[in-house]
Amino acid sequence: MYRKILKKASICLFLLIIYIYVLVLDYIPDKLTIFEGENLSLKTFFGITVDSDEEVLTVSADTGEKTIYKVGTEKLSVNLFHKFSLKDVEVSVLPKTTVIPVGNIAGVKLYTNGVLVVGMSEIEGEDNKSYKPYENSGIEEGDTIVKVNDTTIYSTDDLIENINLSKGEQLQIQYIHDEETKECSITPVKTDKEEYKLGLWVRDSAAGVGTVTFYEPSTQKFGALGHGITDIDTGELLNIASGEFVTAEILNIKKGEDGNPGKIQGTVDGQETIGEISKNTEFGIYGKIEDLSSLNIDASKEMEVALRDEIQLGKATILCSLDNETVQEYEIEITKIYKENNYDNKSMEIKVTDERLIEKTGGIIQGMSGSPIIQNGKFVGAVTHVLVNSATEGYAVFGDLMIKQSKEVGRLER
After folding, report:
1. Are residues 262 and 368 both part of a single domain?
2. Is 121 a catalytic residue?
3. Same domain, 297 and 381
4. Is 227 an annotated catalytic residue?
C-alpha cells in the first residue's frame, strides 16, 4: 500500500515538474524588443539556460537576468543544461531614443477592419413572427465580420447592401473571433418593410478625445493615450483598418471625485487633421504626424527616453492641456514601479500632488490618458488609468513600452 502511494506521489511530482517547465518555456517570448543598455529579464528554472553565440551578453546565473549591449538583432537559444535546444528567442536591440513630450488634447477617429458586432436582437419577419437568424452561427459580440460570400466588407453600408442583395438566400459570412478567421452560414429574414436583416448590431468607427504623449522627430511618429481604444459595448480592443488624428476643442471639464471619475468633454467636429493612425494597441495608439504645426510642439524640449532602471520613486511631473491654449506642467509622485511588467499598461502607480491640477480636475480624469511623465529630464511614461475610489491616484505605462510599439509601426509601414 505504501509503495503504491509513493509511486503515485512520484508520478504526480514528475508531472508537476514537467508542467512547471512548460509554463516557464511558455513565459519566455519568441520575440523581444529592448533598448541598448536595457536589462533584459528572462526568468528561468533549474537547468534552463539562455545562451548566445556572440559575446554581447552579461549573464547572472542567480537571477537569469541578461543585458545585451549590441544594437541590432540577436538570437538567443533557450537550452536544457546547455545541451538540449528548447526554443529560440529573437531579440531586437534599439539604439537609445529621444522624443518630444507633448501633452496636447487631440481627437481620435478610428475605422475598423470590417464591421464590429456590438449586439444581437430578434427580428420580426413579414409574417409577424420573431426570428434569430444568427442563432447557432457561432458569431458573438466582439467578433468582426470581414466578408459576405466573396465580397469584402469595409463598412456597415457594405454589410447592409450585401444582405439586401441576397433576397433572403443563405449567406456565407467570414468573421474574426479571438484573432482566428472563421466562417458560418446565415439566412437573412425579410421584414414587413421589404428589408433583409441578420439580427446583428454592428459598428464600423469610433471617435473620442485623449492626450498626445510624444513626438519622435527622427521618424515623425507619435504615440498617444498609453492604452488602447476599446469598443464601448463589447470592451474588446478595436481592430482598426485606418484612423485619423485630429485637433480637438475642449468644451467642458467634469471634475472627478472619489468613486466618480471625471472627464474632459470635447469635440472633433470640424477640426484639422494632424496625422494618420496606423496601430491601436494595449499600450496606446500610434501613427505618423502630417501637420506638426497644429500641435505647437516645442523642439527645444527633446529628451531621452528613460530606461526602467533610471526611473525612481518620488517626484515627477506630467504635461497636459486643459484650456485649449497651453500645455502646463503639474507635479505628481511615482509611488510604485513594476520593472518586470511587459504585459499591460499598469507599469507604475502614481499620485497627483499638484494643488492646481486637483483644483481643476480633482486629480486624474478621462481624457488625460496619455499625459507624458517626466523625471530628471527624461521621458519615463504616460498616464493611463485613474483609481475609481481615489481620484488623485492611478496608473501609468513605461515610456519604453510605448516607444517599442511605435517602432513596430515603422516596421509595419515598410
Report:
1. yes
2. no
3. yes
4. yes
